[in-house]
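User: My instructor asked us to take a sequence, write out its structure as C-alpha cells, and then describe one feature of it. I'm not sure where to start. Here is the sequence I was given:
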Amino acid sequence: MTIFLDTSAWVKFFLREEGTTRIQDFLLTQWLSGTHVFTASPITYAETLSTLKRAHRGQRLGDEEFAKAVSLFEEQWSNTQVIAVDMELITRSGQLAKEYGLRGCDAFQLATALQAQTNLFIGADLELNDTARTCGLKVWNPTEELEEEPAPICGTRSFSRTGRD
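Assistant: Let's start with the prediction itself. The C-alpha cells for your sequence are:
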C-alpha cells in the first residue's frame, strides 16, 4: 500500500495540535510494516522544516524540542519515497491548479500523490482533501476518526513518538 503524507500530516506529527495523537498512533501502530510505502512531495521537506522553524521562533517549540523534531523529521524523511520532479508532474500540478483553483503548493502535493498512485492520502487541509477525493483518492484527515481501521501490523520503522500528545 502506498501512503502519501501531505505537509499538514507531517506537521501534526511534530506539533501538538488537533490530530497529533491520531497521526502518531496511526503511524506508530498501524502502518509500519515493510509492505507499506510512505511517499511525499519534494516540497514537503522545505514546508515542514519551515513550519517547525516558525514554531520555534514563535516559542511553540523550545530549543531542545526544535532540535529533536528536526532530527526525527530528517530520520523519517530518509525512509520516505520522495517522488521525483519531472515535466509531467509540473504540468499536472498546473492543470490541477487551473481546474480546481488550488494554491500552487497544494496542486503540486496532489499531483505528486496522483503520480505515486497513492492508496491513502493523509492531510489536514480541507480544500486539498476535498479535491483529492474528487480526483479519486482515499483521504484521511487526522483530526477525524479513521473510517476503516486496518489490521494491526507488527514491527516498526523509524517513526517514533515525539512525546507530544
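For the description part of your assignment, you could build on this observation: Residues 2-140 form a domain with the Rossmann fold fold (CATH 3.40.50.1010). Try explaining in your own words what that tells you about the chain.
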